[in-house]
Amino acid sequence: MNISQASEATGLPAKTIRYYEEIGLIRPDRRANGYRDFADTEVHKLRFLARARALGFGIDDCRSLLALWGDRARASADVRRIAHAHLAEIEAKITDLTAMRDTLSHLVVTCAGDGRPDCPILNTLSSSD
Amino acid sequence: MNISQASEATGLPAKTIRYYEEIGLIRPDRRANGYRDFADTEVHKLRFLARARALGFGIDDCRSLLALWGDRARASADVRRIAHAHLAEIEAKITDLTAMRDTLSHLVVTCAGDGRPDCPILNTLSSSD
DNA sequence: CTTGACCTTCCAGTCACGGGAACCCTTATG
DNA sequence: CATAAGGGTTCCCGTGACTGGAAGGTCAAG
Asked: Fewer CB near the terminus (10 Å): N or C of chain A?
């Protein structure tokens, strides 16, 4: 299977697939002409990576999860630990973004948004308290 | 005012302040010995930038907001447009992160997290549907 | 034989800084 | 006077996870 077919099969851009190989997440075979040749196992890994990335896991987490996936003697506690830590990061981000959103939406509502220069948004940004 | 004092007055690291000068957001004076000398106006700009960055505005937005702040003939509609677009981005991120959190928290709850290898998290990541 | 669609590697850029090296300026102390 | 500490300066590299593009090899069709 060529890289474009692997791309279509996984939804990952070819560039991303090459990058994953470069950093050692996958190791596709090579044909005599130098082209990558993706076996089913590599395509499975790519799909796994695509799903993990879609859940926001970083590359390092993906590497660990991939290793655990391939380890028959793994403990589910190890997987859970990674997922739980990532969940905590996501929740922290949501908290931050929600605070930003609340402040901003209040400001946007308060701002007249007309041709006059008076603007509570700028007033808030430049306030000296 | 030296850079370390400007840093303390604004909460921004000295490195960040130098970076803001490098990209043209501020323009502090220079003393004879080459040291930066921050007048009140520059410190005000830095505080403005710190607040705008804390609300998640990108550097380009900060540049625009700073220009509008210094423009007496500005229209508040211009400010509002920037803030509204940024608000939409934040809300989109919150939506994405919330979806991730929901999926992940469900998986974490479902996973036994013990010594056994069976793990719904990995099962989901490797499922072929 | 040529065209066009693949594939390859390598280099540069993204965003908003942070770390660290190498070096200059000022002040205090032995 | 020498020196050490604690400012300041510039310059360059690294971050995460790719993305874009250039230069060039390979393959199938007409």
From this structure: C
Selected for mutation to probe chain B from A41, A76, A102, A118 (highest B CB count within 10 Å) is: A76
Q: Kindly state the percentage of chain A with pLDDT values over 70.
A: 98
Chain A residues lying within 8 Å of B107, measured CB to CB: 83
Closest-CA residue in chain B for A40? Answer: B128
Å between B126 CA and C4 C1'? 37
Which pLDDT tens digit goes with each residue over A17-51?
Answer: 999 999 999 999 999 999 999 999 999 999 999 99
Nearest to B4 by CA among B67, B16, A26: B16
Q: What is the separation of C-alpha A75 from the centre of its chain, rounded to a whole number of angstroms?
A: 24
Q: CA-CA distance, B48 to A11, in Å (whole number)? A: 42
